[in-house]
Amino acid sequence: MRAVWLKNQVLSFRKDVPAPEPLAGEALVKVRLAGICGTDLELVKGYYPFSGIPGHEFVGEIVLAPDQPNRVGQRVVGEINVTCGSCRYCLAKQPTQCQNRSVLGIKNRNGAFAEYLCLPLKNLKALPDGICDNAAVFVEPLAAALEIQEQIKIRSTDRVLVLGAGRLGQLIAQTLVPLDCDLTVVARHINQQVILAGLQIAWIDEHAVRQRAFDIVIEATGSANGVFWAQQAVRPRGTIVLKSTTMEKGNSQMNFSSLVVDEITLVGSRCGPFAPALHLLENRLVDPTVLIAQRYYMNEASAAFKQAAKPGMLKILFRIAK
Asked: Is residue 9 part of a domain?
């Protein structure tokens, strides 16, 4: 099997990786498209000691499902956390925090930058015909964007600032538009600004951010300094939602005394629900395809990752077949 391989923070293209075999309750999925996200870039930097096939944003087709052969042929996307079902978090219906989880392309499970992958059937969500592959490959990060609305209440009267207009920040902004809140996005790069303007989403330069002015600040900068900038922008008794995972140490220190005195709520936010993401896509309420910058084949992995790491770059996709 052909695959992108990561070992000791070095990427390579291999043609000799054994194809995975589904365990009980799993299916074999032929990958059609896969997307590079910020976490993949951080894995190359050593964010987590992962060796194997990275990648967790994908759309594919079930080609083998011994336990549910009727599902063969389905186009699917997949929830990336594979859980034990018996730990305290699983029993409390908080599976994304499962103590024994593997995570597709991130932790103890080979991922989507390959011809095939395996996931439990319960993780694989069938795609409606109305969602094309180019949109479906965004379901996982779109779900992560929607997790914010699962965690906090956002009212139409709230002044909301999204810090960062990259791959995830753009999706977050699109998911907030239907809430009719007072939404502003900080966008550094012209390509980001053009997309936001085309969607009629207000954007500002980072230097125009008003201090202590926003009820909710969503940090999606991909930078260790993002939380510092968020703290400058949020009002007393406001909420900061943190989305970035990064290896960076950062140059700025958080003012913890100010967090206490101003009674700021900090919310960490990670994976999210697939059903609302599929609903938004099926009903054309968001359009993630405007974020696609370029497509590469797997044997161009080094060039693809280099391109994805450029400042302001949006979504880079792998076309699996050639």
From this structure: yes
Strands 3-7 vs 10-14: parallel, antiparallel or unpaired:
antiparallel
Alpha-carbon span 13 to 53, nearest angstrom = 10
What's the one-letter identity of residue 286? V
Q: Which CATH number does the domain housing residue 262 bear?
A: 3.40.50.720
Q: Are residues 13 and 120 in the same domain?
A: yes
Q: Which amino acid belongs to residue 154? A: I
pLDDT given for residue 148 in this prediction: 97
In a domain, 233, yes or no: yes
Provide CB contacts within 8 A for 28, sequence distance 6+.
Answer: 19, 20, 21, 22, 62, 63, 64, 65, 116, 117, 118
DSSP, res 107: B
Decide if pLDDT at 142 tops 60: yes
DSSP-assigned letter for residue 309: T
List the structure tokens of 220: 């999606």
pLDDT in tens, 268-298: 999 999 999 999 999 999 999 999 999 999 9
pLDDT at 247: 65
pTM of this structure: 0.94
Give the structural domain span for 254: 145-268
First-to-last C-alpha distance (Å) of the chain: 13
pLDDT(140) > 70: yes
- CA-based angle 164:169:130, to the nearest 5? 160
**pLDDT, tens digit (0-9, with 9 covering 90-100), for 29-46:** 999 999 999 999 999 998
Residue 40's CATH number: 3.90.180.10
Q: Is residue 258 part of a domain?
A: yes
- Alpha-helical regions (H) of the chain: 38-45, 88-91, 133-136, 139-151, 167-176, 190-198, 226-233, 256-261, 274-282, 301-308
Rounded Cα distance between 307 and 32, Å, is 21
Cβ(104)–Cβ(125) below 8 Å = no
Q: Are residues 256 and 300 in the same domain?
A: no
pLDDT tens digits, one per residue of 84-121: 999 999 999 999 999 999 999 999 999 999 999 999 99
